[in-house]
Structures are given as structure tokens and as C-alpha cells.
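Archive entry. Fields below.
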Amino acid sequence: MTKPPPTLRWSGGTNGHLVLLDQTRLPGQVVELACRDVEDVWEAIRSLRVRGAPAIGIAAAYGVVLAATEKTQVSAAIERLATSRPTAVNLFWALQRMQTVADSDPAERNPQDLAERLLNEARQIHGEDRGQCAAIGRHGALRLADLPEGAGILTHCNAGALATGGEGTALAVIFALHAAGKRPHVFVDETRPLLQGARLTAWELQQRGIRATLICDSMAAQVMREGRVRAVITGADRIAASGDTANKIGTYSVAVAANAHQVPFYIAAPTTTFDLSLDSGEQIPIEERLAEEITCLAGTPTAPADIAVYNPAFDVTPARLIRAIISERGVIEPVTASSVRQHTAASC
Amino acid sequence: MTKPPPTLRWSGGTNGHLVLLDQTRLPGQVVELACRDVEDVWEAIRSLRVRGAPAIGIAAAYGVVLAATEKTQVSAAIERLATSRPTAVNLFWALQRMQTVADSDPAERNPQDLAERLLNEARQIHGEDRGQCAAIGRHGALRLADLPEGAGILTHCNAGALATGGEGTALAVIFALHAAGKRPHVFVDETRPLLQGARLTAWELQQRGIRATLICDSMAAQVMREGRVRAVITGADRIAASGDTANKIGTYSVAVAANAHQVPFYIAAPTTTFDLSLDSGEQIPIEERLAEEITCLAGTPTAPADIAVYNPAFDVTPARLIRAIISERGVIEPVTASSVRQHTAASC
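PREDICTED_STRUCTURE:
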């Protein structure tokens, strides 16, 4: 199999553009999408052509570069991109970094200078994320080193290379375990409604030759009951100061089931996913998406017309259900407000 | 909206045939399907054109009538129909009743007599189920009479008129609560992979003007966490002597979540769904179905080709997670081997 294109890349110099692997068309079609203005990037984030908290942040940072002809446009672009999706905090974190760069030299000499500094910053964000993914993989594989060979690991949604600028968060841990000869057997929740598990995670694992079994989300508890899952690991979209973690809808259900079966539940996320301005998960804004995501599939209606639908895109798993959080800095365990504070305050 | 045709009906006399509402085409198309021989009925059960434990039993009973030209054919038909699906015990129970009728008069006068007796028995089974549904509705509404008006009730899969010869089991309780002015708000799990909740339960509730909100299965825990669910009620495919209950895959996950949120979890099923020959749920045979049910939707692939899939059609909820079982005879509560024995031994 040919190596697929990267999740996202910048093509050219300051007059270049962002190129995304269009994830809405995976796994059937491997198609790159050029984003040449801020609206293209906004739409790509909104429509989940690029998704995953770290990848959204990187895409938005590059999106700002597309507006870098003058400073007022940069601020407008940042404001616009901030409205694309509400839950993943990496988006706001990355946009804040871009704003700081734009603000850092009030006497901007010329637009070209600004564009170069913004492109450098976006590349920096991208590169840092790549390094963080690798570190998460190392810390996670160390933390899970006690797992027996061939152990079952369950994951939900996609927290792999497709969700980040590097090798992923939760999947980086699985990749590192695999590279260490652990040969994990991954149970992949399909992850309704948009099937990121079936479409993206299964695809990533298959490409790397890692044993994977696809299940419906509702089967996770059953697979645990059968004793086939030794650990659960997922990514995160925003982690409050308490350790409460927002992630793809259905993560909470998996955490509840894991708790009921004494299976440890881990979160893997870079420190850019922490939002210490929020005391608890209750304060994390949860995006609600269109009913059609649930009532139609591949254009075919799968429910009666006009049925009411509840479609939160995320849920919050309380810290008490999380055994540990693995970041690029190491492991937070147990997960408490004080351990989170200590971990995030530490210098790298 | 025109009243839809019944879930199943016999058309004509002993030379007649079985007519099913083809549930694989709902809610988009309301189409009846004529089954004129045993293979037609076998295929309809196997392909879930008719599904739901009580409805499968009734369909199989009528299927036997289609072979009622001579006794050896009847036994062969029973043997064949018994292979259509393994989990719902009502199938075997109904076929056993048909076999008993076939065996009851060794000196059969003529094929017409046998056919008449078999058709009478199938109609009897159908009629009894209708009555049992009504009684389940009454007992359930009485048991849940304490629910406040507008209370949220969550259900999984379809245990309505489409699953039975009458008004349903779990949905019969909801219909009775609605008729009693309780105006329940039903959270409908879509029920992957075959979406019986989205396609069938949402459709039944909508037709009756009962407030329904469709959710993905992975959202059930979240809706409970939000405090919006006061009770969970589902049907059953087989209940062991211990009270352990096999039902559509995902039911166990819902029961675990309900338990974690102190939401009472109820099963509604006729006594024909009990299998006292099995001590515990571990012994219930669980059907595994094709990978394509998970990897394709409406003919569109939704996962990489050749990905491994685990697709159990049912799971078992242990008695300890079940607050009560509601049958046509009343309420089993608490659910223990001794209360099950007492309940099923009682005369009607």
C-alpha cells in the first residue's frame, strides 16, 4: 500500500496554501484538498475534513497565514476561525499563539514580514505537536509496559496520525506498544454518528499491520465483559483543571463500562489540550451538530423524517473514571486537580 | 397517516399464506411480503424482515402451516425453521407447540385435517401473544405509575408492535403509560448495526404521537448523566432461570450505564421468552452475524475492506442489573432464580 499523504501540510512559501487529506472521504478515497483562503479552512474544520483537537489547532494556525496580508485581516481571520468548532481547546490555543505573533511587533515593517512570522509560528505549532505525539507514545508505552503480549486495548473515535500533526495521541501509545513488540489487539469502536473509528482508526491500524477488530459502540461493554480488554485509551478535546475530560461522544459510556469491569481507562493528550481556566468539565462547551448526521447515512435516510434528534458531538468523562492522563510531559496519576496543576506547571 | 399493515397476518384458509410487513424496508417503504413456502419464511426470519422474539415465534408457527400437506413435511419444516435464528427462544417454543399438534393424532385422517389443526394452533399462538402484550402493557404501566408526567424513558432496539403479534412488550408499557396520560418522553437508541431503534421504534412512536428523541447508542449514558432518563425498558429474546436476559446487542451496555446512574432498568417480555432449561445467561446461544452489517450501510462501505469485525447480535444482561421483569402475569421483582421460578410456575 502506498503511504498516504500527511494529514495536513503547507505547500509553498508565504504565498502558499494549506493542503489537507479530506477525512470525510476516507477510507474509500484518499484525496487531498487545497485550502486557499480562511473560508476554505473554516469549512474544512466545520465539516470535519480535518478533525482531532491537535490537527484542528494546526489547521487553524495555517489558516491564519492565508490572511496574512495585513494585520486587521489577521485578527478577523482569527475571530472567524474561532467560530468553526467550540469544544477542542487546541483551536483557541493555536489561534491565541498566532494572535500573539501578530501583536508582537506593533511597527510591522511590511506585510511580507508579518506573513513570514505567522508561517513560522504555524510551522512551529505543527512541529511541536509532532514532537509531543512522539513523547506521548513513549510515555504511554512505558506506562502500559505491564500489558501482556497480544493484550486487547479498546479505543474510541480516532486519536491517530489523522488527528494530529504527528503520529497521534492514543494511537501513538498503541503504535509505540506495537513497535516495542507487544502486538496489541485493538478493539475499535466504530464511533457513531460519523464513524471516525470505522473509517479512520481501522484504516490507520490496518496500514500499520496492527491487529484490529471493529465493533459497534454498543458492543464495548460486552467485549469488556468477555475479558478481552485490558486497557482503554482515547484522546481528548479539552481537559479541565479538575482532570474532567471532554472527548468524542460515547467516550463517557466507554469509561462507565470500563469502570464497571475494572478495566483501566486512560486519556492521551498533549498539554495544549488542557484548559486550566475551567475548574471542571461542567464548564466545557459541548458542540451540538445536525440531526442529519444521525438520521442519514451516505445520503440514505435511516430514520423517519422529522424525528427529534439529540446530537452532542462530545461528552465529558469525570476525572474519577480516568486512571491516568498521558501527556508529552509524562503521566498524571491519579487524576486530581492538584496533580493536573503540578503536571501542567512543570517545565518540559 | 394511514394505519400501516399489521406486522404479520395469515391470508386465506389452510391453502393461504403468510403476509409480513417487510421491516428491512421501513421506515422508507411500507411494503408487505407474501411468504408462500417454508423457505420464504426462513429467509424472512433470517434476514430480519420479521424480527422480535414473539413475532419470530408467530411467523415460524404460520410457516409450519405452509408445509402442512403431510406429517413428514411438517417435521422437516419445523427442523428447518429452527435453524433460522438461534437466540430468541420463542421460535423454538412456538415450533414445539406446532410439533405437539402434529404429533397429537397419530391416526391423521387426511392432510386437510392436519392443516386445519396447525392453522388453528398458529392463530392461537398469535392471539395469545396479542393478549400477552396487552397484559404486559397494563402490568408495566401499573409498576411505573409513580413516574412523573413527561418522564424520560429510554429504550433500545424495537420491542413494539413490530416485534410481536400485538402492541409490543417494552413499547406496550410505554403506550399504556401514554394512554394513561403520563406523556412519556422516549429516548430511542438507534441500535446499531441494523438501526431497529431509528427505523422501527422511532417510527412506531411517531405514528402514535408519543414524544421521541433519537440518539446514538453511545449517547445513552450521557442522557442519563444529564438526568433526563427516569427508567429504561427493553424487550428480551431469552431469559434464563436466573433472570439473566439476552436481548439485542447494546442492551447490556445500557444496563451498565443505568446501574451507574441509579436509573432502574426493566425488561418486558411474555413468559414464552423464558427458558427455564438454562440455569444462567452464560448458556444462552448468541448469534453472530455478518461483518457487512457493520462495515456497509445502505450499500456504501463505511470501513476499510477486510477489517476484522465482531458482530454478536445479542448480549446478556445479568439479573443483578435488572430492577424487574414485567410479563403478562405481572412483575418479577427482585429478579432472582427463586422469584423467576415462582412467577413462571404460577397459573395465569
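CURATOR_NOTE: The mean pLDDT of chain A is 96.
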